[in-house]
Amino acid sequence: MSRIPLPYTQKVLDLFRNPKNLGKLEDANVTAVAGNPACGDMITFYMKINDQAVIEKISFESYGCAANIATASIVTEMIKGLSVENAWKDVTWKKVTEEVGGLPSVKFHCGILAVGAVKRAIRKYYEQKGSAPSWLPKELTFEEKQALEEEELAKRLSKKLKAADEK
Amino acid sequence: MVENVKDLLKAHEGVKHEVYLDNENSTMVPKEVIDAILPYYNQRAYGNPTLTHKPGWEGFETIMRASQKISKLIGAKILEEVTFTPGATEANNLALMGAALANKHKGKKIVISAIEPINVLHVTGLLQKFGFITTKVPVDPEGFIQLEKIKEAVDKETVLASIATVNNEIGTVQPIKEALDIVKDKNPEALFHTDASDAYGRIPFNVQNLNVDLATVSSYKILGPRGVGALYVKEGVNVDKILEGQIGTQKLWPGVENTPLIVGFTKASELAFNGFEANTNRMRLLRDKLVDGVFAKLSDVKLNGPKGDKRAPDNANISFLRCEGEALTIELSLTGVYVSSGSACSRRLLQPSHVLVAIGRKFSEAHGSILMKTTRCHTEEDITHVLEVLPNAVNRIRGIVGSTGVD
């Protein structure tokens, strides 16, 4: 184990102390989760997407560090009121990182996970509808792949430790 | 990124009561210790202790007196058995690397526990490059080493065993004498090292009674300055130097002796051992108040490590379920309570403490663990303050988690 200094920005600290759009959304029609408690990094997004495909409401819950909480919160602010298409196209992990004033590099994965979770939610929305628009790529985006990879990594590590334990 | 720190510090303005409990990772140094150190920078004994002038001879005398004091406190027979190093990390590196390399003709096997501090654990990784093979002996759910597994692990090829007397994270006081006897019984030639950093000043510890070959002690773990520690090497035990340079009074560690810090280490040791009973009783009283208070005020908490007299008197390690540790340390910092979490961020994953994993804690339990150590300098008011702010902090972080962190 090694430790890395984590000089968070004022914006990260503000969002950590007073997260925007926190908590379960009772009238959500899409819910998506990314990460795993074993990674210490897990986000749930709740979205209410209306008939015009606009993200009318969005909220989050987060099991993670201050960077995880802050990036999840800023993502909800960034995409609230956007059309699903614009949310998909405009929000990247780099933009999320910029919006919180930057992150220590070791925490980039928090922003990536947050965006991965949003993209997962949007895919789920169209899966539930039974039809996907032409702008929605079939192939997973960078953030979605990274979220999957992180989840796989956690699973593998858990298994490895369990095996070592049994030995 | 360093500019951000200004804002982080500003967010702490208005904090009225500060309580520092992160004594595992660094400590505040009491004024008496600082007062003892300072004259050695510019008033006396600032010379190189091997040189033939007044400040040099003063330095020599100071270091020899310090060696005498530390040897007496740990029960060494002669002062030459004590080598000052720049800390416990260096002492543990010297013990493992130095003893293994000096005795490699006797065998290439090393035995340690699964919960050794990382400055022992990682050195065995380094020793692998020199052909040494390490067996990690498992511990039970309270962190006690499984003695029968030591018996299985040690054989004629075993050159060295290293088991900490007290675990630094969960406070488990090991049956170290029994462990040592098992090792020596299986192989009288095998050397036995113990990291006693978390035993020194907390539980009775005596190298002669134990009949140990090598032992590490650390200054900052007893409220001394950082940057100094010592390795006890029993007379006649062969240890190679692991660094080269000018050798002075410390035959196993080159470089100019750090006289002021050695003085500080000695002063801190005196303060810890003058009234040892009273000091350790105070740590225990405050620690018990802290742990009992947490359990009374919060549900879904787990104590990591044993209860009772087989736990170091200062150690409190608690897992707060559905609560991520780093977030909790920041939340507590903003209220003036300074603690550390057992998990640390690596590139992609939060790495759980290997100690908590070894005692069978789930990752999510390890991620919500907080380590706190009381000292004789804490007051009852300090602990009362912690117990006032801690439940709110845990509940706020749990509020952000909602149903997300439940596995």
Structural account:
The complex is a heterodimer of chains A (167) and B (407). Helices cover 50% and strands 15% of the residues of chain A. Chain A is an alpha+beta fold and 167 residues long. Chain A has a single domain, classed as Sufe protein. Chain: A, CATH 3.90.1010. The longest helix of chain A is centred in the C-terminal third of the chain and has 25 residues. In chain B, strands 2-8-7-6-5-3-4 form a seven-stranded mixed beta sheet, sandwiched between helices. In chain B, strands 9-10-15-12 form a four-stranded antiparallel beta sheet. Chain B has a two-stranded parallel sheet with strand order 1-11. In chain B, helix 2 runs antiparallel to helix 10. At the A-B interface, helix 1, strand 2, strand 3, helix 2 and helix 6 of A face helix 1, helix 12, strand 13, strand 14 and helix 14 of B.
Rounded Rg of chain A: 16 Å
Can you say what the CATH homologous superfamily of the largest domain in chain B is?
Type I PLP-dependent aspartate aminotransferase-like (Major domain)
Q: In terms of structural class, how would the helical and strand content of chain B be classed? A: alpha/beta
Shape of chain B: globular
Radius of gyration of chain B in whole Å, from Cα?
A: 22 Å
Give the largest interface pair and sizes: A-B, 48 and 41 residues
Enumerate the strands of the largest sheet of chain B in spatial order, edge to edge or round the barrel.
2-8-7-6-5-3-4
Distance between the termini of chain A: 22 Å
CATH architecture of the largest domain in chain B: 3-Layer(aba) Sandwich
**Main sheet overview of chain A:** 3 strands, antiparallel
Weakly predicted, low-confidence segments of chain A: none
Share of residues in strands of chain A: 5-15%
| Count of helical regions of chain B | 15
The coarse overall form of chain A would be: globular
Helix/strand-derived category of chain A reads alpha+beta
Mean pLDDT of chain A: 93
Strand order of the largest sheet of chain A: 1-2-3
